[in-house]
Write a structure and sequence with these properties.
The chain has about 400 residues and is mainly α. The chain is built from 12 helices and 6 strands.
């Protein structure tokens, strides 16, 4: 990561005279390397600057990431089924030895799994895009409230200054704070539509009903927050904001609502359960179906024990590859739950097996937006003439007043 240094945008040079001020736009832009402090690579307490060493560590870390995808009871079960079937075919069914076409494997497993992975990545990209639109429009409404000028009896003043009583100011701060909290809570609800929910065994149907009820409750909180934001915009009109500007803010709030509905659809609907169940079951029983083919691949020139070892290793490799692809697909099913159930949302120092890598971390997104809203409020009284280096960076305390 790079630590960005804040620099003055238009700082006059020392040789500039007072009689003739130099236009800062005539000077070339500052090179990025002059404003960025290079942070050395770290491996524990050891610091280094070698790009080659960093690339090697990235290479070895990739094996660790792959190991996470391999960890799973279904992969171990599939390897067990494949090994037992291959061993039985070796000792009791050598006359069944034949070479099977790999097209059957690609059509029955690879095609549905890769299609599921593609749909999962499309959902993830759509979620990031819609979240950017949602949070940007929330920030625009907040910034408009604090910085737009309206003309009243005492001349031009900021719109927020028309909310003179502390209760009103506390109310609009609480509105935005609770809306961001509700967004983080709704998208962290564990996903439903699992295979056990369809069968309903072991009270799984009750579990799904409870999760659906929680999701609907949290979604209603977000909907109420968007409705309160719309009423806030109408209240701005009562406090002197012109109708054209009110219409613009209404369009911002409408964009928030549309983006949230799209995100809710991505949250609640995903890959069909039948496709996921089919891929999971077929990957496990694939070792039994392909056992004669694994025995045929071992060959006849090597010793018997070597041939059996080769057949067993090849069978396990196929199961690990197919099972890992299926785990990647399942990991992309819900693009928002980038952590396992019961794991703190912003805790990073977790074991490898307790992490999921490809989710959209909603708590971090809304926390970043909360800090932006706080900075906007602190800078609302500053003039636009202030240099960027003189702007207060602010702190990360809560926006809610006590």
């Amino acid at each position: 990561m790079m630590d960005l240094a804040v620099v003055a945008v238009c700082e006059p040079p020392a040789e500039a005279t007072t009689t003739q001020e130099q236009n800062c736009l005539e000077r070339p832009l500052r090179k990025p390397e002059e404003s960025i402090r290079r942070v050395p690579y770290r491996c524990g307490d050891v610091e280094y600057r070698s790009n080659t060493l960093a690339d090697m560590l990235n290479f070895f870390a990739s094996f660790v990431v792959v190991a996470q995808a391999v960890m799973g009871a279904d992969i171990l079960l599939g390897c067990g089924v494949a090994c037992v079937s291959t061993w039985c075919c070796w000792y009791f069914g050598r006359e069944l030895e034949w070479s099977m076409s790999q097209n059957f494997l690609s059509m029955a497993v690879v095609f549905p799994v890769t299609q599921g992975i593609g749909m999962g990545f499309n959902r993830r990209e759509a979620a990031l895009r819609d979240f950017g639109v949602l949070l940007a429009n929330v920030r625009s409404v907040w910034e408009s409230l604090l910085t737009w000028q309206v003309k009243g009896e005492h001349g031009w003043r900021r719109l927020a200054e028309n909310y003179e009583d502390d209760e009103s100011r506390r109310a609009y701060r609480q509105l935005f704070h609770e809306l961001l909290e509700a967004l983080a809570t709704y998208f962290e609800v564990p996903r439903v539509q699992r295979a056990r929910h369809t069968v309903g065994c072991c009270y799984a149907g009750q579990e799904e009903a409870e999760l659906v009820a929680i999701a609907r409750q949290q979604r209603a909180v977000v909907d109420r927050g968007i409705g309160r934001m719309r009423r806030l915009v109408q209240d701005m009109k009562c406090r002197g904001l012109p109708g054209g500007e009110v219409h613009r803010l209404d369009s911002y709030v409408n964009a928030v609502g549309v983006s949230f509905e799209r995100l809710a659809a991505l949250k609640e609907y995903r890959t069909p359960r039948a496709l996921r169940s089919y891929a999971r079951v077929y990957i496990i029983i694939m070792g039994a179906l392909y056992a004669p083919d694994y025995v045929a691949i071992a060959g006849v020139s090597a010793p018997a024990d070597v041939q059996l070892t080769v057949a067993l290793v090849y069978a396990c490799m196929i199961q690990v590859v197919m099972g890992s692809l299926f785990h990647v697909m399942i990991g992309l099913e819900d693009p928002f739950t980038g952590r396992r159930r019961g794991q703190p949302p912003l805790k990073r120092n977790l074991p490898l097996w307790d992490k999921e890598l490809d989710g959209v971390c909603v708590p971090e997104l809304v926390e970043g937006t909360r800090k932006q809203l706080l900075h906007i409020e602190r800078e609302a009284n500053l003039s636009w003439k202030e240099a960027l280096s003189e702007m207060p960076l602010g702190r990360s305390e809560d926006m809610r007043e006590t």
